[in-house]
Known about the structure:
The complex is a heterodimer of chains A (167) and B (82).
Chain A lengths: L8 H13 L25 E6 L3 E3 L17 E4 L8 E3 L7 H5 L7 H9 L5 E2 L3 E4 L7 H17 L4 E5 L2
Parallel strand pairs in A: 1-5, 1-6, 1-7
Antiparallel strand pairs in A: 2-4, 3-6
Chain B lengths: L1 H9 L3 E6 L2 H7 L3 E4 L14 H17 L5 E4 L7
Parallel strand pairs in B: 1-2, 2-3
Amino acid sequence: MTTHLINTEALERSYNTVRQKWDPHFEWVVNESAPWAPLERPLAQTALALVGTCGAYRRGADCPFDAANYYGDPSFKEIPRDTEPGALEFAHTHYDHAHVAQDPNVGFPLGLLRILEAEGVIGRLVDPAISFSGFLPQTRQLLTDTAPAAAKRLLEAGAQSALLVPC
Amino acid sequence: MGLIARVLEEAGIATVCIVMRREVAQNVKPPRTLFVKFPMGAPLGPAGEAETQRGVILEALSALASATEPGTIVDSARAWKR
């Protein structure tokens, strides 16, 4: 799998840190090609879903992600599209929370996307949005179980496109 | 996150990812990517800067609408200004 890895000093540092501190079997994922689903309509007529990986959850409504787990937490949460930014918390221990704590739109921009919907830039903001917690050194369960379940949920909700925001 | 995009895309949902580490996108190969030179924890820009955040989202949506090649990476010209 590492034959075609494009490596950099920064990647090498992260690789060593993850292996030493959390998962001794961690490997970067390398794919040879990308899948493709064409955008069938103009954005203004498209149902767009928000998918975030910064660990967003609703205070008092959702159980937080298991951010302390060395192997990460591959589950996802459905976040109603009209959730107010102030109701969001972030469970993810691998980035600086200063910005999302002050302004949740930085990591999970439901408010900004509702504005773009009102302005007609996108046709519709899909309900619900989907939230993952992105530190995940072992990807099998994500690939075979939780990401396909999220895709199924979004298709049921009418999603034709998705914006993915990391942290 | 690129892995999630690939699963959604295989299910028929057209995706665009925002990333802060270009080489990760080069390896994982999400279908469409906007690379921003922002630090981890601030994918859309600094807290409180709604215009920057909106601009980054519009750049990502533009990549979603205009990319024609699987694995496209668009480089945002924005610089971190803090």
